[in-house]
Design brief:
With about 170 residues, the protein is mainly alpha-helical. It has three helices and two strands; from the N terminus they run ααββα. A two-stranded antiparallel sheet has the order 1-2.
Length: about 170
């Protein structure tokens, strides 16, 4: 490498030629005016759509569950308020039979949900909200326990009777 008078090195003076497409003025102006296409978003993968659909189905079903729970909680709160009103009124008027207006009245309710059919298609259905299920279950359990107590008491009475009758 040899230093040139202006301080540059000889190797730096070599020019690197890159191939450049030849564009003439006529080639630029002879093209027909064509519109520039707007940017197109990339096509989503088909699996993304299925995943989005599955997520939405899960969301709808979760919201249906939460809505049913919220309605049942509303009923529980209203029932507690009804009991408090009756208790308070019975303290004020102990000799009267108390009947207070209910805080809330109920009509048959349904909530929507999504179900998959056997052929794979989805169907939006509605499910009945059973507002009085807990009362029926409590009533059934109370009857069952009373029946068990009666059976137990009757067996105890029979055992006592046998003890007194048996002379052996």
């Amino acid at each position: 490498m040899k230093l040139l008078p202006d301080g540059d090195r000889e190797s730096d003076k070599r020019k690197i030629l890159l191939p450049v497409p030849y564009l003439s003025a006529s080639s630029l102006f002879n093209k027909k005016n064509t519109a520039i296409l707007p940017l197109q978003p990339p096509q989503e993968d088909f699996t993304d759509g299925w995943q989005h659909l599955s997520t939405q189905v899960k969301r709808i079903n979760q919201l249906a569950y939460e809505l049913e729970a919220a309605i049942l909680e509303l009923k529980m709160i209203a029932d507690n308020l009804d009991e408090q009103k009756i208790t308070q009124a019975s303290k004020q008027f102990p000799l009267r039979k108390i009947s207070c207006k209910k805080v809330c009245s109920y009509v048959p309710l349904t909530v929507p949900y999504v179900q998959q059919k056997s052929d794979g298609t989805l169907i939006v259905k509605k499910r009945k909200v059973d507002l009085f299920r807990s009362e029926r279950e409590a009533k059934y359990l109370a009857q069952k326990l009373r029946h068990q107590i009666k059976r137990k008491n009757s067996h105890l009475k029979q055992a006592k009777t046998r003890k007194y009758i048996n002379f052996s």
